[in-house]
């Protein structure tokens, strides 16, 4: 059988398993590249080559640094201080909740941020007699959009960057995502403080799944709430994060992004901000293995011509000389719809190599197309299962599925229009 057809069959099965999650996401990704190796599509040296990708190292290091911020209590302390100072007015509280969540989610775990702030927000709402649902939905929304500001803010950003690197194309810089992430965050913040808040349901706080919240905190690296916190270690973890971010922003030739991240992670352990085992526990291994496995699948798609087959089919359906604007708009919609029902990491991993192939087929720069795919995968507002932050607030906010649809669909459409307009300004198609 033609290697391209084999690759497409493996990709189709992986897509089905990603959507249904019949087996864990990371297992699906690693199984896909393993099968391609067994069938002779990929040479043995390339089957697990994704695990040695510099972007994997970057992500691993940043996971540890983020875990240190949660473990020392710094992330929670910042969030709680800002939210409590906002007062009890519904709009002021919403503004504070969203601003601090956007800022924290840009450099640390979205899920951990929501898990740490949610109990505080619920407590303030109960004291001020403000419906908890009016603040919890914006909390989840801010966590999702905040991750789009930096490369490590959300997995899809890392996925599209890695896909470009694998294809031998120029990649995105650490803060390059901010060109679209900051405008999107501002637009969504303003929308929620004006028109959007009128669409929010008015429900009092429901029962909070303490186990789910604690699990989310632990996954992000947060320590036991009852354990005493060291202000010295808080400061140290904050300075380490700041130093790493500054190094990445300066793009020093001798300190590439992954080196800055690993250096920061090492310092976190050496200074006692978290122990060695806690550093390992703070890494999201699902994302690491999913990313690495799908990088190898992307390599197979490129080498066998499977990606070109898909690209030729899609371009053929769009007519002769399709507009890159139309292409970007369509791929954004596909990515955005998929991510409402499956992992945003998985949807980005599936679509990134296809997006590159399609862009090259019509002769446009893949970067704006990949940026649109990555951002679309993070704009997961319309269902409770789209992202962990959405799921976390479901019970405490007493939300229904329709509540997410009512609030989330307009946000998805706003994001779509904003991206189609803004992205080509910073990343021209030609």
TrEMBL record:
What is its subcellular localisation?
A: Membrane
Instruction: Please provide the record's keywords in A-Z order.
Output: Membrane, Repeat, Transmembrane, Transmembrane helix, Transport
What's the domain of life for this entry?
Bacteria
**Keyword Transferase attributed:** no
Q: What's the protein's topology in the membrane?
A: Multi-pass membrane protein
GO MF annotation list: transmembrane transporter activity
User: According to its UniProt record, where is this protein mainly located?
Assistant: membrane
The membrane-spanning stretches of this chain are 47-70, 177-195, 234-251, 257-274, 281-301, 325-356, 368-387, 407-427
Q: Where is the Citrate transporter-like domain?
A: 16-363
GO cellular component term, pick one? plasma membrane
Q: Which InterPro entries does UniProt cross-reference here?
A: Cit_transptr-like_dom, DASS-Related_Transporters, Na/sul_symport_CS, SLC13A/DASS
Q: Which PANTHER family match?
A: BASIC AMINO ACID ANTIPORTER YFCC-RELATED, RESPONSE REGULATOR
Protein name in UniProt: Cation transporter
């Amino acid at each position: 059988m033609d290697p391209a057809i084999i690759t497409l069959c493996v990709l189709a099965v992986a897509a089905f398993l990603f959507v249904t999650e019949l087996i864990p996401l990371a297992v699906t990704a690693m199984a896909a590249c393993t099968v391609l190796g067994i069938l002779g599509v990929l040479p043995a040296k390339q089957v697990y080559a994704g695990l040695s990708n510099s972007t994997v190292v970057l992500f691993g290091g940043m996971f540890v640094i983020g875990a240190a911020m949660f473990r020392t209590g710094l992330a929670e302390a910042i969030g709680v201080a800002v939210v409590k100072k906002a007062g009890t007015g519904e709009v002021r509280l919403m503004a504070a909740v969203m601003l601090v969540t956007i800022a924290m989610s840009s450099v640390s775990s979205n899920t951990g941020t929501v898990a740490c702030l949610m109990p505080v927000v619920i407590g303030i709402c109960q004291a001020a007699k403000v419906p908890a649902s009016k603040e919890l939905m914006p909390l989840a929304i801010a966590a999702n959009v905040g991750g789009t500001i930096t490369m490590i803010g959300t997995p899809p950003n890392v996925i599209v960057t890695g896909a470009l690197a694998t294809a031998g194309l120029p990649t995105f810089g650490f803060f390059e995502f901010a060109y679209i992430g900051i405008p999107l965050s501002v637009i969504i913040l303003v929308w929620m403080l004006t028109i959007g808040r009128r669409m929010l349901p008015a429900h009092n706080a429901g029962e909070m799944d303490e186990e789910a919240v604690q699990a989310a905190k632990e996954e992000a690296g947060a320590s036991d709430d009852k354990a005493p916190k060291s202000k010295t270690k808080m400061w140290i973890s904050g300075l380490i994060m700041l130093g790493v971010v500054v190094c990445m922003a300066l793009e020093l030739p001798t300190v590439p992004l992954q080196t800055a991240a690993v250096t920061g992670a090492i310092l976190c352990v050496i200074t006692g901000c978290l122990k060695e085992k806690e550093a390992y526990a703070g890494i999201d291994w699902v994302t690491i293995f999913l990313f690495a496995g799908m990088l190898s699948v992307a390599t197979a798609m490129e080498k066998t011509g499977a990606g070109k087959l898909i690209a030729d089919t899609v371009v053929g359906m769009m007519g002769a000389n399709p507009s890159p604007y139309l292409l970007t708009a369509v791929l954004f919609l596909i990515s955005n719809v998929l991510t409402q029902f499956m992992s945003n990491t998985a949807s980005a991993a599936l679509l990134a190599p296809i997006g590159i192939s399609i862009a090259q087929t019509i002769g446009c720069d893949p970067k704006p197309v990949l940026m649109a795919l990555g951002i679309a995968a993070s704009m997961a507002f319309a269902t409770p299962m789209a992202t962990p932050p959405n799921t976390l607030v479901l019970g405490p906010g007493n939300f229904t599925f329709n509540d997410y649809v009512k609030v989330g669909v307009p946000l998805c459409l706003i994001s779509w229009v904003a991206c189609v307009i803004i992205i080509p300004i910073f990343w021209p198609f030609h």
